[in-house]
Amino acid sequence: MATTVKAEPLIKVQHLKKTYWNGSVAIPAVKGVNLSINEGEFVALMGPSGSGKSTLMNLLAFLDAPTSGSYSFAGVNIDEFDERYLAELRNATIGFVFQQFYLLPRTSALDNVRLPLRYAGVSRKEQISRATSVLERVGLEHRLSHYSNELSGGQQQRVSIARALVNDPKVLFCDEPTGNLDSKTADEIMDILKGLHKEGRTIIMVTHEEDIARSAKRTIHMKDGEII
Amino acid sequence: MTMVFVHIKTALEQLIKNKGRSVLTMLGIIIGIGSVIFILTVGEVAKNFLIGQISQFGTNVVEVSPQSAIGLGEDSDATTLTDDKVDQIEHSSLLPEITAISAGKTLIKDLQFENTTKQISIYADRPDIFPVNNQKALRGRIFNQSDFQSGARVLVIGQNLEKDLFEGDSAVGKKVKVGGVLFQIIGVVEGFDQFGGGFGPDMVFAPLTTIRRLFIDSSESNTISFMLVQFESGTNVDSFTSRLNFELRRVNGYNQTEDFPFYVASREQFLSIFDTVLLGVQAFISAVAGISLFVGGIGIMNIMLVTVKERTKEIGLRKAIGAKNESILTQFLVESIVLTTVGGIIGIAMGLSLTLLSVVGINYFQPDWGVAFIIVPQAIFIACGVSVTVGMIFGLYPAFKASKLHPIEALRYE
């Protein structure tokens, strides 16, 4: 029947809902979202604060469990949201780049990047070789042993991109990746992300800045917990 | 496993970064562990010293003295030892193992040599005092039966007194005045330290007969105040002591069930009494140290809770990139254990230093005691075990709290 082979989307959610409870008052943060994202896409998730874009990202990135709805990731239906399982999923398939970098202070760039591999139980030798190669990829090959707090903001964000890439994730989630950077550095970071997209990396980026969102190939707007 | 090493490294870095705070936090552990190590080590040092002293004087000796003589009971005829009673004991058919009996009195007198006057404590005894105490003459001779019978005015002194009085010269043959009466020194014995001696005046030995004639009131001319009964080696001490008790009751006119106002103890028993007392003191100090460890543990828990709060974002990040709850739990538990273990190690070092300092101090003031510093490995093992356990117990709650944090809430924590 199907004559054209349509690739299964990497991410497919249907009627995804997340409701927070403040005492007995229900606060719906995501109200039944349907969304498909294909492998290799560069998607910007936009919306004002309180629009539910961060909550949606947390759900897509396995940081939180939905209240209801279905989520299929790489063809696998994720219906078990046990903390342990989610931690393993995040470790194996997701890379995170945060606005505030969240690097461990007084810890070398190399050790920061190695961290996800430690939790994955990768051998020390492989940790170092993989961490070194992703740090080279973001242009920090001569900063390997520098403490994270000795680096500039742009360099810190590059370390955190390297950390996000080190486990070769299926999706890179970027939460306001340039929010703490000046415009020149922001451009450098966006260039890296664009480069990664060109190499075929799937990127989902949460932002409220139009010109940053323009780097993405597709923009999803959210308002009041719904996609508009 | 490698993860644990990383945790230990992280914990040590945290500890060094917050030096002041860490030391204050560890203080309770340091004091607790330090006191346990100190009391256990000092106890062992004291015990070793005492064993050395006692075996130097021979352990096959039972001490007998009326309780009145050691300040425990009423003085009366029935509780007074006399020459006659000593003879009965010595020749008792129930006590064939007796090899020698020392029976005498001590009294304090002034000893005068040229312009020097020194207070001394005279051991007025039978010649048997020397074999009983395992003492031999270093120079000259000890007094003998004929000195004893004739009431010769002869003295045997210790090495230390010789050194003090004659500054390198031999004391043998020298004449000194004791209580105004001229005596001749006939021999020198090895530095005489009675149990726990060294305090109080130097001791010299003289025949009991001589001292009685010169210094003792005629009403007490046949009494003695203590007895040291030496028995053949290989004798069953308990059996011997109970037979000796039996005979002492008989010669003093006590029936075998009455309270008996005599102190009878073998030197081995003395050691076991000391052991019991030591154990009591050690248990008490350990209990106090336990309180310190408990309070210290609460301090650790408190600081670990602060640490978890301070590093909430770090915990969030670690969870976001894939740390499971047990990784976080282990991380903070290891930090807590590292904190108490470092505290414990400092405590051990302090306890040992304090003991060493005491030993050095004692040896400085009492060089002839020869007190030796020893390390008690069991005490150190116990201290390490306790440190780790305290860290584990009091670190568990904060570590558990950290492990249960939600990644998003932890990341957003301000």
From TrEMBL, chain A:
GO molecular-function terms, A-Z: ATP binding; ATP hydrolysis activity; transmembrane transporter activity
Listed name of the protein: Macrolide ABC transporter ATP-binding protein
SMART domains found in the cross-reference section: AAA (SM00382)
Entries under PROSITE patterns matching the protein: ABC_TRANSPORTER_1, ABC_TRANSPORTER_2
Residue ranges of every copy of the ABC transporter domain listed in the record: 11-228
Keyword entries, A-Z: ATP-binding, Nucleotide-binding, Transport
Protein origin, superkingdom: Bacteria
Record-linked InterPro entries: AAA+_ATPase, ABC_transporter-like_ATP-bd, ABC_transporter-like_CS, ABC_transpr_LolD-like, MacB-like_ATP-bd, P-loop_NTPase
Keyword Nucleotide-binding: yes
Gene Ontology cellular component terms for the protein in this record: membrane protein complex; plasma membrane
From TrEMBL, chain B:
All residue ranges annotated as the ABC3 transporter permease C-terminal domain in the record: 287-407
Chain segments annotated as transmembrane: 23-43, 283-308, 329-357, 369-397
MF term (GO), any: transmembrane transporter activity
GO cellular component: plasma membrane
Keyword Cell membrane: yes
Keywords: Cell membrane, Membrane, Transmembrane, Transmembrane helix
Bilayer disposition of the protein: Multi-pass membrane protein
Record has Ribosomal protein as a keyword: no
Main location: membrane
Subcellular location: Cell membrane
Domain MacB-like periplasmic core intervals: 22-244
Family membership: Belongs to the ABC-4 integral membrane protein family.
Stored PANTHER family: ABC TRANSPORTER PERMEASE YTRF, MEMBRANE COMPONENT OF TRANSPORTER-RELATED
Name under which the protein is recorded: Multidrug ABC transporter substrate-binding protein
Organism: Candidatus Kerfeldbacteria bacterium CG15_BIG_FIL_POST_REV_8_21_14_020_45_12
